[in-house]
UniProtKB/TrEMBL annotation, chain A:
Protein name from the UniProt record: DUF4040 domain-containing protein
Annotated InterPro entries: CPA3_Na-H_Antiporter_A (IPR050616), MrpA_C/MbhD (IPR025383), MrpA_C/MbhE (IPR046806), Nuo/plastoQ_OxRdtase_6_NuoJ (IPR042106)
Alphabetic keyword roster: Cell membrane, Membrane, Transmembrane, Transmembrane helix, Transport
Record field: transmembrane: 25-46, 53-70, 76-98, 110-132, 182-201
CC per GO annotation: plasma membrane
Subcellular location as annotated: Cell membrane
Membrane topology: Multi-pass membrane protein
Xref: Pfam families: MbhD, MbhE
Domain MrpA C-terminal/MbhD: 34-99
Domain MrpA C-terminal/MbhE per the UniProt entry, residue ranges: 145-192
Main location: membrane
From TrEMBL, chain B:
Coarse class of the protein's main subcellular location: membrane
Organism per entry: Halonotius terrestris
Keyword field contains Transmembrane: yes
Record's subcellular location: Membrane
GO cellular component, one term: membrane
Name used for this protein in its record: Cation:proton antiporter
C-alpha cells in the first residue's frame, strides 16, 4: 500500500502569500459556530451552577460535532464521551456534595474589569489572525509538509499496520507518550483520593 | 497582506476567530465568576478553544478522515488530532483534581465563593 504520491505533490508555499479568499465559511459551520458561541456565553452568564453545567454539556456536544465536521471523528467521539459525559458527571458530583446558593437573579452581573482583560486578550490574539492560512486551505504549511504530515500518511500503514493514521501515531509512534498519559491519569486519581482523604472512590 | 479587510479575516479564518472568542469566554469565567466550580468550567472552556485551534489547523477542504487506503485521499493531517486526544485526557485529569480540591475547600470552609474563601483564610 503506497499513498506517497497523494501527499508529496506539495509546492512550497509562503504562508503570507496564500490567497485569502480561497476558502470561506459554510452554512453548516456558521450554524454550529453560532450554537457553540451562544451556549458558551450562557454558561458564563447563568447564575445557577446546575444550569451552567447542563449548558456546558450542550456546548461540548456542539464542539464534538464541529470536530467531526473538520474530519476528526476520533477527537469528536472523545470530546463527546469525556467533555460532555465524564466532565459533566464530575461537575454534577461536585455540586451534589456542596450547597447551591439560592439566587434571585437568573444571570450573573457582568464584571467589566474582567471584560476589559478578556478584550485585551482578544485584541492581542486577533492581530495575528490575518497571518494564519485560511481554514481548510490545501496549501497551508501543515498540509503541504511532506516530511511530517506527508511522512505519517504515506508510511503509517506500512510501518505499523494500522489503517487509521491517528491510531498509528497514538499507539505506535508515540506509544511511550500515551503510556505517560496513562501515568498522568493514575497520578490524577491518586491526587484526588489524597486531597479528599479517602482510600477508595465512592459516590 | 496589507489589503486584508476585517470581513475577509472573519469569513476565511472563522474557526480561528471562534477559538479566540471561546478562549476569551473561558478566561472571563476564570476571572469573573466567583463560584469555584464555574472557574473549573471556564478552564475547560479555555482548553476546548485551544483544541478547536488544533483541529482547524489540520482541516483541509475536501479532505477525508485520515484512515489511509490505497488510492484514497487527500487526507486531513492526523498529527494535531493525536495531540488533542492526549490533551483531552490530560484535561479531564486536571478537572478531576481541581474539583477534588474544590470539594476539600468546601469541607474545610463551607463555601465555594472565592471572595468568601479569601476573607476566611485572611482571618486565620
Amino acid at each position: 500500500m503506497s499513498v506517497a504520491a497523494t501527499t508529496t505533490t506539495a509546492t512550497p508555499a509562503v504562508a503570507g502569500a496564500l490567497p485569502l479568499q480561497s476558502v470561506g465559511i459554510t452554512p453548516v459551520e456558521a450554524s454550529l459556530f453560532a450554537f457553540v458561541l451562544i451556549t458558551a456565553v450562557l454558561t458564563a452568564l447563568f447564575r445557577d451552577v446546575l444550569a451552567s453545567i447542563v449548558i456546558f454539556a450542550a456546548y461540548s456536544l456542539g464542539l464534538a460535532i464541529i470536530y467531526t465536521f473538520y474530519r476528526a471523528p476520533d477527537v469528536g467521539l472523545t470530546e463527546a464521551a469525556i467533555g460532555a459525559g465524564v466532565t459533566t458527571v464530575f461537575l454534577l458530583l461536585t455540586i451534589a456534595k456542596t450547597t447551591r446558593p439560592a439566587s434571585d437573579a437568573r444571570f450573573e452581573s457582568i464584571n467589566w474589569p474582567a471584560v476589559g482583560v478578556c478584550g485585551l486578550f482578544v485584541g492581542v490574539v486577533a492581530v495575528t489572525l490575518p497571518a494564519f492560512p485560511a481554514v481548510g486551505d490545501p496549501s497551508s504549511p501543515i498540509l503541504t509538509n511532506a516530511d511530517v504530515t506527508g511522512y505519517y500518511l504515506s508510511t503509517a500503514y506500512d510501518e505499523t499496520g494500522a489503517e487509521n493514521a491517528v491510531t498509528a501515531v497514538l499507539a505506535a509512534y508515540r506509544g511511550f507518550d500515551t503510556f505517560g498519559e496513562a501515568i498522568v491519569v493514575f497520578a490524577a486519581g491518586i491526587a484526588s483520593l489524597l486531597v479528599l482523604g479517602r482510600e477508595v472512590f465512592t459516590a | 497582506m496589507t489589503d486584508v479587510t476585517f470581513i475577509d479575516v472573519l469569513t476565511t479564518r472563522h474557526a480561528y476567530v471562534l477559538f479566540v472568542l471561546l478562549s476569551a469566554i473561558g478566561l472571563y469565567m476564570m476571572i469573573a465568576n466567583e463560584n469555584l466550580v464555574k472557574k473549573v468550567i471556564g478552564l475547560n472552556m479555555f482548553q476546548t478553544g485551544i483544541f478547536l485551534f488544533f483541529i482547524t489547523s489540520a482541516y483541509r477542504v475536501g479532505g477525508s478522515t485520515p484512515i489511509v487506503k490505497s488510492g484514497g485521499g487527500p487526507y486531513v493531517s492526523p498529527l494535531p488530532h493525536v495531540i488533542v486526544l492526549t490533551a483531552i485526557v490530560v484535561g479531564i485529569s486536571l478537572t478531576a483534581v481541581g474539583l477534588a480540591l474544590t470539594l476539600r475547600l468546601y469541607a474545610e470552609y463551607g463555601t465555594l465563593r472565592a471572595s468568601a474563601l479569601r476573607e476566611v483564610i485572611a482571618d486565620e
